[in-house]
Amino acid sequence: RWFDTYLQEVDTLLQPGRYGYYAEISGGNGKVMKRAGTMFCTPNDWMGWSEPFLSNIDYFPFDSIPKTVWEENRELISDYGGQILLKSIVNNQDGGILMAFIHDMYLKQLKPGPYHTPVIMDGDYHIQLKRKVLGIENKYPPLAAPERANHTTPVLHSLKGEDIEKNAAFEKEMRALCSEWAELSGEPFDMLVARDGSILFHGAFGENLRGRFTLEEPTEIASITKLYTGLLFAQFVDQGLIGIDDPVGKYLQDFPTTGEKAITLRQCFTHTSGFYGHGSLGGVQNPWLDNSLALWLPYIEPATRHYYNGMGYNLAGKVMEIVSGKSIFHLFQEYLFAPLHLKHTQLDIDLAYGVRSTAYDMAVVGQMLLNQGSYGDLHFFSEKTYEALLPVDLETFFPNIKGRNWGIGITPSNRWIKDEDTGEKRNILSDHVVGHGSATSSILNVDLENKIVITQSRMDGGKLYHEYLNKAYLLIEKYFDD
Questions:
Q1: pLDDT of 470
Q2: How many of the other CB atoms lie within 10 Å of CB of 74?
Q3: Quick one: average pLDDT of 455-480?
Q4: In a domain, 142, yes or no
Q5: Are residues 278 and 423 in the same domain?
Q6: Total of domains in the chain
Q7: Looking at the structure, do residues 233 and 85 belong to the same domain, yes or no?
Q8: 90 and 227: one domain?
Q9: Are residues 235 and 104 in the same domain?
Q10: Deepest of 196, 293, 455, 467, by most Cβ within 10 A of its Cβ?
Q11: How far apart are CA 312 and CA 47, in angstroms?
């Protein structure tokens, strides 16, 4: 079945522009495979192959090749990169998505904005098409925006007056430590430490082949993305649109609602769904990823073990899309990034990795978590929902899974050392530090007892990472652990 850019079903492609297809393939085993995608219909007289395609590709470091080599060969890189781009546009779906985006911006007279990107517009198109195919356009009430509260909670702010002087010793020691850390590790980073909203330390350190690292330079924070996905999901939970222990099949018809194969949203977030891998089967950008994953059901055993993966998060994203009628990356922009004014944060890849951000923007998210779902006068979710997000012993829900504490995208994030006096193992800071780990060694930790937020964005841990991270945490503990 074919649909035009306005989601009207068509039999013939009469005009240039975006077209979406939906297909079902029935197998001999009775299983039905569902697929959808985007095609771009070019004008009959378009001769793109005859145009001089140039591509302005920004420098990216690899194999220690300096930026000067790139600049010296920029014209050749632009020429050959243009050839690659033309082939991509003509030969694969991503090229069609790009051309459909450009055409829709012109045809519908849209202005640049956070929701007008190739990925978001394509995602919005396909979730609307999916709901139309399923006949559920008006099934669910809309997700409400974060609301203004009667009281305010702490927001990140700089120190003033005598507080600056009181903090001077800590700031000086931490700056010296971070400078040494960046130099010895060979990896640049930015770092922020805040207590109850007061910024005690914020700085960028080191350099790489791109130059000096800055406070405004976002980096891939990898699996910390899972925490962000949990915070977006919390708003659906808080408004009663989705239940944490609801079966996925309540919202996605290819999944069962009862029996041993009935996967729940909690299982999606706690790595107990039985799925494995990250970004498989086209990832969350596959409009019918839920159908693809449902075809795995005969081969998995939900709720029997903890197996770290990203597919559960992407499946949860499909539930959020079908309920809201908006693409998952649109939801992130509208309900998390924009309300929190995260100017240097972006996500358009996956729900288990892919957020690019800075230490400051991450600290805003950490402060919202510390505030139990609020930031300033904005209320995202209730204290009750906040409590439901926190790590718990998974054996409480899944008797066969022992020794695992996990929350809805949130994990225990304590750092421990041997106490110099007693020789006993102890946690640095309090026993209640939460956050999520990261393959790039970026940090988003929240000490719930001391009301401290610690963030760091970086591209890699580098040498001596754990040694210097412990030193930094011990320094924070020295000054601020109650």
A1: 96
A2: 14
A3: 96
A4: no
A5: yes
A6: 2
A7: no
A8: no
A9: no
A10: 455
A11: 44
Residue 172 is assigned to a structural domain of this protein = no
The helix/strand/coil state of 416 is: strand
Given 110, 139, 156, which residue is the final one in a domain? 110
* Strand partners for 377: none
Write the pLDDT tens digit of every residue in 300-347.
Answer: 999 999 999 999 999 999 999 999 999 999 999 999 999 999 999 999
pLDDT exceeding 90 applies to what percent of the chain? 88
Do 102 and 229 belong to one domain? no
Does 130 fall in a domain?
Answer: no
| Four-residue CA torsion sign, 412, 383, 224, 233 | positive
- Name which of 389, 144, 141 is nearest 265 in CA terms: 389
Question: Could you give the CA distance from residue 115 to residue 104 in angstroms, rounded to a whole number?
Answer: 13
State which amino acid sits at residue 463. K
Q: How many angstroms separate the CA atoms of 194 and 455, rounded?
A: 9
Which of 410, 400, 391, 393 lies closest to 302 in space, CA to CA?
400
Note whether 280 and 417 are same-domain residues: yes
Question: What distances in angstroms separate CA 476 from CA 177, 450, 472, 481, one per listed residue?
Answer: 12, 11, 6, 7
Q: How confident is the model at residue 264 (pLDDT cuts 50, 70, 90)?
A: very high
Please indicate, yes or no, if residue 381 is contained in any of the structural domains.
Answer: yes
- Taking 90 as the threshold, does the pLDDT of residue 159 lie above it? yes
What are the pLDDT digits (tens) for 102-145? Answer: 999 999 999 999 999 999 999 999 999 999 999 999 999 999 99
pTM of the model: 0.95
Structure tokens of 126? 């396909």
Residues whose CB is less than 8 angstroms from the CB of residue 164 and which lie 6 or more positions away in sequence, other chains included: none
Distance CA 338, CA 320 (A): 18
**DSSP letters of 253-270?**
TTS-SSSTT--BHHHHHT
Distance CA 244, CA 237 (A): 7
Helices (H), 374-464: 383-389
Among 79, 110, 141, give the residue marking a domain's end. Answer: 110
Domain that holds residue 23: 2-110
pLDDT level of residue 482 (50, 70, 90 thresholds): low
Helix, coil or strand: residue 330 = helix
> Residue 300 has which token pair?
């998995």
* 364-419 per-position pLDDT tens digit: 999 999 999 999 999 999 999 999 999 999 999 999 999 999 999 999 999 999 88
Cα dist. 344→190, 197, 210, 249, 476 in Å? 13, 19, 18, 36, 26
Say if CB 153 and CB 376 are below 8 A apart: yes
What's the Rg (C-alpha) of the chain? 24
